[in-house]
Specification:
Number of strands: 10
Distance between the termini: 15 Å
Number of helices: 8
Bound molecules: adenosine-5'-triphosphate, magnesium ion
Structural class: alpha/beta
Shape: globular
Helix content: 25-40%
Largest sheet: 6 strands, mixed
CATH class: Alpha Beta
Number of domains: 1
Radius of gyration: 18 Å
CATH topology: Rossmann fold
CATH architecture: 3-Layer(aba) Sandwich
CATH superfamily: P-loop containing nucleotide triphosphate hydrolases
């Protein structure tokens, strides 16, 4: 096995990101480091506006950092050309957001099979796979309904089915339970946590719930532009582990 196949699946080093023009610039991320091991479920807590979504957008190749590297399986996706970034998003990542972002014109199963179609899989196979997933997530009876005909909790579970349909190596979840009542938040979290346990899905879980975060393998807190551990120490990757295999 190569060194990069053994190391953390995700290594972020010295990430900087600012928004706004000169004079009114807001520095959101200031030299953030993060490592996530394969199969980990890491919770990211932090007050509103501290940069949690910004971080997920950088890791998700939706936006680029001003400085720093983001190594996914040893490849720097921050510096990669747009085509490679698009392939990474489609092949390696699953996204779940606070709002489900399901397409209203399509049924649950059509939404769930969308990433597979984008990947070029045949319709029949994609549909079978999406139906199997909906069944697994307790949503088989919702398959042919449109998002407007589903409850908030069901919509979010369909969004999770869509996110994992392509068996992503890394799931990025940005307050997936933020819009749900306590019971549905519990159901959706249990689902993510179960996927993590059973499939070893590496998950980065942004939440405002300290209680749910407490059920994850590791908790980090976003403050002052970087991550801190529960003891309040800045999460810094030590010099010895910053050696990047080339
Ligand atoms: N595209 C943008 N242009 C300008 N400012 C932005 C942009 N995106 C984010 N920001 C600013 O960056 C800061 C961090 O935003 P971000 O969305 O990452 O926070 P967050 O931690 O996810 O907050 P919340 O918990 O409310 O979702 C905020 O001050 C926000 O206004
Ligand atoms: Mg956010």
């Amino acid at each position: 096995m190569s060194r990069e196949a053994q190391g953390p699946i995700l290594r972020c080093r010295g990430l900087h990101k600012a928004f706004g023009e000169e004079g009114r610039r807001v520095e959101v991320l200031r030299g953030l480091d993060l490592e996530v091991e394969r199969g980990e479920m890491v919770a990211v807590l932090g007050e509103s506006g501290t940069g949690k979504t910004t971080l997920l957008h950088l890791v998700g190749a939706i936006d680029r950092p001003d400085a720093g590297t983001i190594l996914f399986r040893g490849q720097d996706i921050a510096a990669a050309p747009p085509q490679e970034r698009a392939a990474y998003r489609n092949r390696d990542l699953g996204f779940v957001f606070q709002l489900h972002h399901l397409l209203p014109e399509f049924s649950a199963v059509e939404n769930a099979m969308m990433p597979l179609l984008i990947r070029g899989e045949g319709r029949v196979r994609a549909r079978d796979r999406a139906l199997a997933l909906l069944q697994e997530l307790g949503l088989r009876e919702c398959a042919d309904r449109r998002p407007s005909e589903l409850s908030g909790g069901e919509q979010q579970r369909v969004a999770i089915a869509r996110a994992i349909a392509g068996s992503p190596a890394l799931l990025l979840a940005d307050e997936p339970t933020g819009n749900l009542d306590e019971r549905n938040a519990e159901v959706v979290f249990a689902l993510l946590s179960d996927l993590h346990r059973r499939r070893g899905m590496t998950t980065l879980f942004v939440t405002h719930s300290a209680r749910l975060a407490g059920k994850c393998g590791r908790i980090l807190k976003m403050e002052h532009g970087s991550l801190t551990d529960p003891a309040g120490n800045r999460y810094n990757v030590t010099a010895s582990t910053t050696q990047v295999p080339r």
